[in-house]
Amino acid sequence: MCGIVGIVGKEHAEKIIISGLERLEYRGYDSAGLFVADTQQSHLIKAQGRIKNLSDKLTQDVQGTIGIGHTRWATHGKPSENNAHPHTSENGRLVLVHNGVIENFEEIRQQYLANDSFYGETDTEIAVHLIAALMEQEQLATKEAFQKAVQIIQGSYAFALVDKEAPETIYVAKNKSPLLIGIGENFHVICSDALAMLDQTNHFVEIVDGETVTVTADAFQIEDAKGNLVYRESYEAQLDLTDIEKGTYPYYMLKEVDEQPAVMRRLIQTYEDEQGNVQLDASLVEELAASDRIYIVACGTSYNAGLAAKKFIETMTHIPVEAHLSSEFGYNMPLLSKKPFFIFLTQSGETADSRQVLVQINQLGYPSLTITNVAGSTLSREAKHTLLLHAGPEIAVASTKAYTAQIAVMAILAQGVGNYLAIEAAQEMDIFHELSLVATAMETMISEKAVISQLTEDYLSNTRNAFYIGRGNDYYVSSEAALKLKEISYIQAEGFAAGELKHGTIALIEEGTPVLGIITDALTGSHTRGNLKEVESRGAKTLVIVSEEFARPTDQLVLPNVHPLLTALVSVIPTQLIAYFATLQRGYDVDKPRNLAKSVTVE
Ligand code: F6R
């Protein structure tokens, strides 16, 4: 959701910015823009739609040694060229890009900018006008005005500012929205995500909320909110450019689906010690073991992963688990148990809905763990503990490998805690062996692409809607399967508890409505089959995705058997591929679905 890149001290800043913005495309955006300058000239160019529209506008003379660029995902004001960033002050001197939402923009307009006129409808324009107003009214230098403005502004922001009269400095600040400084030889970059600038450097420095940074070609200076200088070590990004390239794949989503067996194996390597035991921070295991209830807080696909891991954790640890949607939990907190432990599941580590809960949990003093794919992300830094997903960058907006990695990491964690508590079920379990079987089973399903593509065409080519049904964990996977299908193919899909259909929703079944049943559980499988019969007799076209041990000759997709508590890791694979093929067959962009952002940094 919105992306910032910038560079100071290198020729052809415009090219570096365009390629950085392309690498941030995965975050979701609806317009883009850049500003580049050198001592002789400056250019500000914006375009609605894809980055290609922006790069098509760059003529030969658009060059610079300093620049900032932005992809915008509309919050205040519709997607348009006027509302695209960068925005300028009324006198045109200051140029600003911004991620986040300014909450007190109306108050700022009334108090400081009553006589200003605005070009677009964004809160960002208010911010850049405010900096200019402070320079004029209080005779402040650019840096001081910028620092004063960020004290006045409330809300979330990552800002990058250039003053055209001194085009050798980028001023940046951050609060709740991600931003990094990258260190190069005689140049510096800024970016929302290290991925964007990996071809320039892999040494980055984090910026903490409330800090401002003055960035030039040779140096950068971090100051805290009180103006004290801050020194912070750089870190090396553990990312490889090949991780973020599509290679021979037509879409990132397909690459990421295919990577899932390798991710399982990487998790085994990471979390298994030489004796075959789970290696986890002892204090994390002790705190979890001492809790009387685990609250998993997450959004979207991560929430679905939390649900899919619940039974495994409860079986291994005997600690009750509740999964909650962050956006609900934060404002309607349930009565908590006496010794709660909070797990924040978030592939990006930046999701604002989840973060607002973590802030409250920290204020209440409860222990917390963030399970994330992004080391150093906001939720990782702010939770007491972090476990990484080691899934490699997930670029497609539709999450696939992060979902399965989340379930696997929670299973490893539960095994570690269960062993510590000497729970019999954990002692009988060898999670690493089971995950290696899962990896092989995933490969089997991934190799069924041709069959899955054909089934998708047969079942989903002409439909407006579809249902996935299942019970227990199969219900939770149905919810994820339906989310994947609707978010990229735009087929109205619902994941339903199979037994609930007859209590109302069955009224929606018409001649030809696709109903896809997931069956991986001995106890409930026959009931789900009964529910499939019920809808079939009302005209539905049914498809069965079933574990080998319960399969019948007429079933369409058969899953290799894995541990009964880990079936979600395998049954989800054909549903990811169904979503992929349905989207391709409808001619939509698989990786960049409309209206969606990868990293959702507003509530
Ligand atoms: C869907 C998807 C989203 C995210 C949700 C939370 O494919 O990816 O539903 O799961 O926006 O994001 P994270 O996991 O980054 O907190």
TrEMBL record:
Gene3D superfamilies: Glucose-6-phosphate isomerase like protein, domain 1 (3.40.50.10490), Glutamine Phosphoribosylpyrophosphate, subunit 1, domain 1 (3.60.20.10). Residues 284-423, 455-593 form the SIS domain. The keyword Methyltransferase does not apply. It comes from the Bacteria. The keyword Transmembrane does not apply. Transmembrane segments: none annotated. It is found in: Cytoplasm. Homodimer. This is Glutamine--fructose-6-phosphate aminotransferase [isomerizing].
